[in-house]
Amino acid sequence: KVFDDAELVVGIVAEGAASKYSSKKKIKALEKLAKSQAVGAGGMIWVKYEEGKVSSSVGKFYTDEDLAEWAKVCGAKDGDLLLIFAGPDFKTREAMGKFRHELGTILGLRNKGFYGLWVVDFPLLEYDDEEKRWCAMHHPFTSPKPEDVQYLEKEPGKVRANAYDMVINGVEVGGGSIRIHNQDMQMQMFKLLGFTEEEAKDQFGFLMGAFEYGAPPHGGLAFGFDRLCSILGGEPSIRNFIAFPKNKQGRDLMIEAPSAISQKQLDELCIATTAKAEKTEKKNP
């Protein structure tokens, strides 16, 4: 039923990893990783092919012949570990990508050095099942690929964005897009996202008005400088590269923020609060 209800079923083969995960404890650790916040999957199915035998977390539902067929489809051989995710299309792809990075680190498969690539052809839109409407994958000002404009009205899920991300060592370090510079196209995008013409003009009238004077094609690319520095510094976390790092409570201990503000500042911003200010005593060093 997990497969029958899934929009997407994907698998990854960990070559030669069956013997490394011979114990239930280690397999449980992988299952826990799949469900962790770092990956975000609802669950994971595993199949081990070892010494001519097959074992699996779904062994009671499938025969050895079925699991052997899975190996053929996925390219798994004796000694390999097959890991499968299933579920909603986008969420499953995202979880498998994150899991692949984590597993690669665990198995020591990451090469030393720096390896970069560009990710392109993102979907322009994603469907929100809760709100029952299309949402912008990047932002509502991203232009569609010119050759995909024909799908906007009837098949919006097929439209690709004119957007791009730069990735180094599997980590996104920058991203951007070519913006919409045509008033009619921008209004079509707003309507597709659920805005009425009045709502679009009320919230983005300044932009729609500017288009009347003509706007050239334009775009950009923004880098996460602290993330880039962490990669160059060989650190897994950006914490040591953030100018003003925060603790788990969101406090900046260097500048003691957030801190109490004066009543005059609250009045200027028309903000009222019922919270009582805590008195703190500063000790001289």
Describe this structure in words.
With 285 residues, the chain is an alpha+beta fold. Helices cover 28% and strands 20% of the residues. It has seven helices and ten strands. A four-stranded antiparallel sheet has the order 1-4-2-3. The chain has a four-stranded antiparallel sheet with strand order 5-8-9-10. Strands 6-7 form a two-stranded antiparallel ribbon. A hairpin with a 2-residue loop joins strand 2 and strand 3. Helix 4 runs antiparallel to helix 5. The longest helix has 18 residues. It is globular.
Provide the descriptors you would attach to this structure in a database record:
four-stranded antiparallel beta sheet, 285 residues, 28% helix, alpha+beta, 7 helices
